[in-house]
Amino acid sequence: VQLQASGGGLVQAGGSLRLSCAASGLTFGSYAMGWYRQAPGKQRELVSSIDSSGRIRYVDSVKGRFTISRDNAKSTVYLQMNGLKIEDTGVYYCTAGYGTLGDYWGQGTQVTVSS
Length: 115
Fold this sequence. Notes:
With 115 residues, the protein is mainly β. Helices cover 0% and strands 53% of the residues. The chain is built from no helices and eleven strands. Strands 2, 4, 5, 6, 9, 10 and 11 form a seven-stranded mixed β-sheet that branches. The protein starts with a strand and ends with a strand.
C-alpha cells in the first residue's frame, strides 16, 4: 500500500492550498481516509476524515475553511484549505484505515503559512 501526498507549499495567510493523496494497493472505496497534521513541538492531530460512506468530520479549528473530499474512481482524497492561518502550519499526513484511521500513512507534505 502506498499513499502519496502532494500539494503542500508556502502561502500567505488568507490564501488557499489543495492537498491530494493518491492511494494504491488497497480497495480505496472501502477505506476511511483522513488528514492529520503536526506542527513543530506539538502532537499530531486529526484535521479531517471521510469514511467509506462519505461521512465527514473536521476538527473545530478548520470548520468552515477546509473541505475534504474523495474520488473513489481516482483513489484519491483531497483537502481544500481556504482562509489559511499561521496556526495551520505543519506537516500534513494522509492516512487510510479499514474502519479506523491509521492502518497506512503517507510521507507527509509541508504546509507553511506566512504572515
